[in-house]
Write a structure and sequence with these properties.
alpha/beta; elongated; binds zinc ion; 5-stranded mixed β-sheet; single chain
Amino acid sequence: MSFEVREKDLLARIGRLKTKSGVVETPLLFPVVNPVIQPVQPKRIQIDFGFEALITNAYILKKRYQDQPAQQGLHKFLDYDGAVMTDSGAYQILVYGDVDISPKEIVQYQEQIGSDIATILDIPTGWHVTEQHARQTVNETLSRAKLLFKQKTRDDILWVGPVQGGRYLNLVAHSARQMSKLPFQIHALGSPTEVMERYRFDVLVDMIMTAKMNLQPDRPLHLFGAGHPFMFALAVALGCDLFDSAAYSLYAKEGRYMTEDGTHRLNELDYFPCQCPKCTNATPKQVLELPPKEREVFLAEHNLYVCAAEIRRIKQAIRDGRLWEHMEMRAHSHPALYTAVKRLAKYKHFIEKHSPSVKPSGLFYYNSLSLIRPEVVRHAKLLAERYTPTRQVKTLVLVPQAATKPFHKSAEYRKFRKKLKHEIADANVCFYAAPFGVVPIELDEVYPLSQHETAMPLDEETIQYVTDQTVEHIKRTKPKNVTFIHDPKNWNNAILREVKKACKQTTSTLKIVKIDEIKTLEN
Ligand SMILES: [Zn+2]
């Protein structure tokens, strides 16, 4: 197996991918190198910026240099000894409609030049196309994929099987399932560039997730044309392991300066918000005064540093179990990204199923966006499917969350216990708490039910979620008696109203205790 997963968080993974030029670590960004016009030389991309891999275009190489890269070998030709991936000309098909090279020729050429990772000549679906056309691109790509295994002669190259279908998700699913049946080592999601250019990151989420749910999970997934570092965290969280980006150099050409959460025009900057070796030694004004070519190189190098740093932050976040927090922070870079993270609601059960259940760190809960994070989804699922009250007792005592955790060791809970001595002695005690909903006292210390910090006051959606969970819990366990400790300061009256309704339905006798009556008790 060429891909080995070491660490996971959400659908993200830190993995090791074995190529014939060495082992590389994922998530991995391949800077796009255009051999014809390249602001930063490949050797420096490796030595000064630390990129273990790059991607270049086999079609352009063949058109421009014919046999020279084949005679020298691609690595020597580029003067680069990391892993080299080649794209096939599919992007040129998207832009120019066609390329004057056959699928077979491009397979042979990539074998001759010695790519480490190679791509078949797929047909990108594009954005403004009919479903019928989209289906054709999927079918033609599939038949070319099948031909590869009759055409290829080397076994040391990792071949990429691209998934097409564009925004037609049924086609993406079909394409992914069929591609998965072929012995590719890597898959890729094709033609997302236009989706990203339009800032339709929500559609991108649908495309990635549809591919992901239908591909073999043990193969790495490459996202073609993932341009800007502000969306790397989202893509990695959804299980994209490999990326290529030409944005660092395209932006540089247009005088644009990347940050991990946005883009600035150089002439609009008074200060550089960056500590890379380029920015620490210059001011925007000085860079603006440079000759155009030098200015472009400056920006390309800065942009590369920003991309590299963001990938490192993401890897550390995976290791720390804090990728959700990191992704949420990046989601604030742009409303379109935030919209995309909201779209994960549609896939919360799949993400939950494949996320690790124990992590090295607790959760930070800011607002209802996090109600779809796997830990919250998992707790609701386990409570509904697996939890039975520990004793055959007739009373359920519902206690509001305390300020300190674990809740059952808090000062508040000690007061409740004193006040409600008789009820609690013979009851199932559960806390109603954000964000998890209902926390039975015996699970209070189980990860992550005490290992989280929640921002107060709670937003409406969070209160509604906890209310729904509480109501469901009452309906599921049908206690004879319910004692509800009401905390109107942190929880509005809706929860009390809904609990009353639920108790009516389950014919449970409801006793309401106001928290103020208890709080005034002496310790
Ligand atoms: Zn910089």
